[in-house]
Amino acid sequence: MTQASLTQNGAPLPPLSDRETAGLAALRAEPAGDSLPAIANPMHQGLDGLTRPAIIGGQAALVKSFYQGIFLPHGFAGAVEATRAAAALGVTPDLLGADDVSQTMGFVRLGEDWRPAGLIDMLDPEIFSAVLAAKKRFHEGATLSGAIPLREEFARLLEEIRRHPVLVPPVTIRMGWDQITDWVERIIEACETPMQPGACHGENALSNIMIGPEKSVQLIDFDRATMGDIWRDLGAMAQEICADDEDREAFIAAYTGAPATAPQMARLKLYGMLDDALWAMQLMLGEVFPERHGPELYKYAANRLVRLRTQISANDMARLLREAQA
Predict the structure, then answer these.
(1) Lowest CB count within 10 Å: 86, 135, 172, 175, which one?
(2) Looking at the domain assignment, is residue 212 inside a domain?
(3) For 1-32, what is each residue's pLDDT tens digit?
(4) How many helices (H) and strands (E) does the chain have?
(5) Per the database record, which ranges form the Aminoglycoside phosphotransferase domain (predicted)?
(6) Collapsing DSSP states into helix, strand and coil, what is residue 250?
C-alpha cells in the first residue's frame, strides 16, 4: 500500500512526516489510517508523538513516533524496556518492534470493542478494582534498570524551562517559576525517601486506561515509567478522580486493603500536586518545538497550574509536608 493510495472514508490522508516514514519503514509497517488527533484536555492524548494505525507482519498495530525534544526519564531505551516489562505482566499490549533512530514503537492494536476510560468508569466497582489491580501488578512485578531521583528529574526540567524565557506561567495563577519551584522543592524534600518502592507507570491520565469486553482493563503509555515511590502513581491517579478527602480515603483503602493513614493521605495529595507541576512544565516546553507547539499545550499546562495553585491554597501544606515524612 502506498501513501498515495491510502485513504480514510474515501479521502486521501495527510502526508506522513519524515520521522513517521522512517519509523514505519524500520518496523516494516504499512500505515492503515490517519494519526490519532492530539487532544490535551480532557484526553491527555497525542502529547508525546504521532500515533497511527498500521499493519505489522499481518497484525493490526499502532505505531507511535515520538516528537523531537520529548523528555523521557530514561530515554527511548527506557521507554521500550518499561513497555516490555508491562507487556510481560499482561497489563499492556505486546510490543511488536522498536527503532532507536526514529524513536518509534509498534504495539498490538486493541480491537474496536476497546475504548479509553472516563471518570464515570471509575464509579464502577469492577472496573475500578481491575484498574488498581493492573497498577499494583506493575508496581510489584516490574523491575526496571533506571531510577532518577525526583530532585534530579525536576532540576532537568527546570533547567530547560529557564533556557527559554518566553515560557512563563499564565498570570491568572499568580505564581511565577520561583514560587512554583519553592513549593515543588518542599514536596520533593518531604517525599524524597520512598514510602513504598516499586515500578511507577508514570502516565496516570484516565485516557491511558483502556476498557475492553467484560470490563477488562489494559494500561498504555509506559514511556515515563521508572523505579520510585508507587505513591507517586497513586497520587497522580487520585488527582484525576478524587473530589475530596472522603474519596481519597476510599481510594487508598481500595488499593491497600486497609484504612488510610495520615502519611498515605499526605503523600497522595502532595504527589498529585507534584504531578500537576511537572506535567505543566513538560507541556510548556512543547511550545519551543515546531512539531508540538500550539494552544492546546499551553491551555492544558495552565489548567494544571491552576489546580496546583488551588490545592496549595486549600490545604494545610505545613501539616501535609510534615506527615508525608512520618
Answers:
(1) 172
(2) yes
(3) 233 334 434 444 456 778 889 999 999 999 99
(4) 10, 12
(5) 125-260
(6) helix
Q: How many separate domains does the chain show? A: 2
By the 8 A CB rule, do 188 and 324 touch? Answer: no
165 and 78 share a domain? no
Q: What is the pLDDT of residue 11?
A: 44
Query: What separation in angstroms does the CA of 64 have from each of 29, 49, 80, 238, 281?
Result: 11, 6, 12, 27, 22
**Is residue 85 within 8 Å of residue 142, measured between CB atoms?**
yes
- Indicate whether 73 and 145 sit together in one domain: no
**Spatial distance between the Cα atoms of 43 and 33, rounded to a whole number of angstroms:** 20
pLDDT digits (tens, 9 = 90+) for 201-236: 999 999 999 999 999 999 999 999 999 999 999 999
Q: Report whether the peptide linkage leading into residue 263 is cis, meaning its omega lies within 30 degrees of zero.
A: no
CATH classification at residue 102: 3.30.200
Which residue bears the cell 513517521? 20
